[in-house]
């Protein structure tokens, strides 16, 4: 398990803040006893394990590992609670202290296990979980930002803002996450370093509560804590994570806090909501499927691919069938199925007709690839439907290397492909760098930010420069390539800025917005297909902003919600052999229990954006299976054909209904032979 070290180099003396003076040998003895205990419990049956832990607790309780009763009495800022004290509220309780920093993916990974403890044991039962937020980045020291992170991650227990790392120093913590368990006798019992033992929290804490209950040391009083955060349902978007701008100028947004994906026009009209809004892992239709904190989204105009972060899964939403499926997910037969760990971004390659998806695996600090068909990347061969690590050792570091699996990343969070440069660019958030992976040989190199020392993950700041290593960023979370000007655009998330990076010169400068561009931890961005506009996920402001790259003006996208139940929006990309007509076949597929109304006026209407096609009739009666023929006037450039269909159906009881289908077809000319006709399917369902 990768862990962060606040000091960056090595482990400090491992002594805790204790009421009485203790030397390092005593504290080492505690660690040695716990290590010995954990080493042997895996080979024991359940009854023996309980006995071993209870014997350990009996032995430890005789030693003088006393926590100072005034440990929390130094005027700290509290979130989700008034100040708690071992002298009063925490007296007679088992206290679990979670030392964390909200940028840390490993800290996020343990939250479900802490939540499971809280669900199992209430304050009255004798348990209290307390988060101690000891910030890595300066932006994380602000109480408002910690509150937002708690809301984003659904943390309901009290949190202490240890902004100056006083508690961190008093308890001599050396890495995130670290979980301490303190008994009702105010003695330190267990210390879990990193996330590798998170599955054992329940075993140790449950046995501890049972042990002290039997010894009549638990108190079962109750207090009401003033929860200061909660889901804000007044926003249409809630902590949006990523945005993708499709070729057809539709926006795909991961509405992460609402556990769903939304599709918007660039004017803000809502086209699709994908996901029912409740957290879960469920395939199915757009209205009933479930996600868990989805982040990265990318579309090939046929499907939307989703990095379903909280489910450790790669998902696919078909814009034709309006169904969501899981391409790859955590679990299964580990000898055959790799595990996904917090995928944070996803992008296709090649962009127009992808053979694979690249995945930023924030949780295991690697870049992975999912193959649609057999392919080779560098010297790697990937079989169709396989999902494998292609770059990164798994060690959390800022290490560049010509050998892909010797390179190191630190929580990669954003991806961008440059086909002209044959490169994959990575926003490597914890190293505060932008990195480059050659798609020729998978060599990893630095672009801007960071430090020469690959283990130094604290080389952050807010410095623009024309010199690569003099550039300083603070936790950048996304990157996008603009093919028009050859620049990278990044969200420097914890500096609340948009910056422009020249990947050739390796320079970085803050983008000069015309007005004050007020951002709050922006986490995603995307360049429009024509290179004129930057779309930004202003995450903590719950907004999408557009930044005009020509005149530096910006605006807030206002979401317009219309009744879309009677209309289905379908996007397609199509190729047509240069000089030949485009044939479009209209299929109608009836769902079970539905039939096409025989006497109803089924209609089609065509709308053309330009004069590249010769098509005289603009509308007509629709007959299933009919073919429309579009003859080319121009041989160059892509074009858009819009086809509007109106169909009438009836159910088995004779109840009739109308449904509209809006097809937007992006057409590209090619010199290669193309299968014809292009078939568009229309699924008629209630």
From TrEMBL:
Signal peptide: none annotated. It comes from the Eukaryota. Residues 65-214 form the Thioredoxin domain. Pfam families: NHL, Thioredoxin_8. Keywords: Repeat. This is Thioredoxin domain-containing protein.
């Amino acid at each position: 398990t990768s862990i962060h070290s606040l000091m960056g180099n090595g482990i400090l003396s491992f002594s805790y803040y204790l009421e009485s003076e203790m030397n390092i040998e005593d504290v080492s003895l505690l660690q040695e006893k716990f290590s010995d205990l954990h080493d042997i419990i895996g080979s024991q049956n359940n009854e023996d394990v309980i006995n071993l832990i209870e014997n350990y607790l009996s032995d430890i309780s005789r030693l003088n590992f006393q926590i100072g009763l005034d440990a929390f009495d130094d005027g700290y800022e509290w979130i989700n609670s008034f100040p708690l004290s071992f002298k009063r509220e925490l007296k007679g309780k088992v206290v679990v202290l979670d030392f964390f920093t909200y940028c840390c993916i490993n800290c996020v990974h343990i939250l479900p296990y802490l939540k499971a403890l809280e669900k199992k044991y209430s304050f009255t039962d004798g348990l209290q979980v307390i988060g101690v937020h000891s910030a890595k980045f300066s932006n994380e020291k602000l109480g408002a930002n910690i509150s937002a992170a708690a809301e984003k991650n659904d943390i309901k227990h009290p949190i202490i803002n240890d902004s100056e790392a006083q508690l961190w120093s008093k308890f001599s913590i050396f890495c995130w996450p670290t979980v301490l368990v303190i008994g009702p006798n105010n003695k330190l019992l267990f210390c879990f370093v990193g996330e590798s033992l998170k599955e054992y929290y329940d075993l140790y804490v449950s046995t501890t509560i049972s042990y002290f209950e039997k010894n009549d040391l638990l108190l079962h009083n109750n207090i009401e804590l003033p929860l200061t955060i909660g889901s804000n349902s007044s926003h249409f978007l809630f902590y949006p994570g990523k945005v993708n701008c499709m070729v057809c100028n539709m926006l795909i947004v991961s509405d992460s806090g609402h556990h769903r994906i939304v599709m918007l026009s660039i004017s803000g009209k809502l086209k699709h909501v994908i996901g029912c809004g409740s957290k879960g892992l469920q395939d199915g239709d757009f209205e009933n499927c479930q996600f868990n904190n989805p982040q990265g989204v990318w579309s090939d105009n046929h499907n939307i691919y989703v990095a379903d972060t909280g489910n450790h899964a790669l998902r696919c939403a078909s814009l034709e069938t309006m169904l969501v499926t899981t391409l790859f997910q955590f679990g299964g037969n580990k000898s055959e199925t790799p595990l996904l760990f917090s995928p944070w971004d996803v992008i296709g390659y090649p962009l127009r007709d992808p053979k694979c998806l690249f995945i930023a695996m924030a949780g295991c600090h690697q870049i992975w690839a999912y193959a649609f068909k057999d392919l080779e990347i560098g010297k790697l061969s990937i079989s169709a439907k396989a999902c494998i690590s292609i770059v990164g050792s798994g060690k959390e570091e800022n290490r560049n290397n010509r050998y892909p699996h010797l390179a190191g990343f630190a929580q990669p969070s954003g991806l961008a492909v440059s086909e002209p440069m044959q490169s994959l660019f990575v926003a490597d958030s914890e190293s505060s760098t932008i990195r480059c992976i050659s798609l020729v040989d998978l060599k990893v190199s630095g672009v801007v930010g960071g430090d020469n020392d690959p283990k130094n993950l604290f080389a952050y700041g807010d410095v623009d420069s024309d010199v690569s290593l003099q550039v300083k960023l603070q936790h950048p979370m996304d990157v996008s390539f603009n093919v028009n000007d050859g620049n990278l655009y990044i969200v420097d998330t914890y500096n609340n800025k948009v910056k422009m990076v020249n990947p050739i010169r390796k320079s970085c400068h803050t983008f000069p917005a015309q007005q004050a561009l007020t951002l709050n931890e922006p986490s995603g961005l995307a360049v429009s297909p024509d290179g004129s506009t930057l779309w930004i996920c202003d995450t903590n402001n719950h907004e999408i902003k557009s930044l005009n790259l020509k005149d530096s003006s910006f605006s807030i996208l206002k979401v317009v919600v219309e009744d879309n139940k009677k209309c289905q929006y379908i996007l397609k990309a199509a190729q047509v052999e240069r000089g030949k007509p485009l044939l479009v076949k209209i299929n109608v597929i009836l769902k079970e229990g539905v039939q096409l109304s025989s006497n109803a006026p089924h209609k089609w209407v065509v709308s053309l954006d330009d004069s590249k096609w010769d098509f005289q009739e603009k509308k007509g009666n629709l007959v299933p299976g009919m073919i429309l023929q579009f003859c080319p006037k121009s041989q160059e450039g892509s074009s858009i054909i819009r086809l509007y269909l109106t169909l009438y159906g009836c159910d088995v009881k004779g109840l009739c209904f109308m449904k509209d289908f809006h097809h937007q077809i992006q057409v590209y000319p090619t010199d290669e032979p193309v299968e014809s006709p292009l078939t568009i399917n229309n699924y008629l369902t209630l």
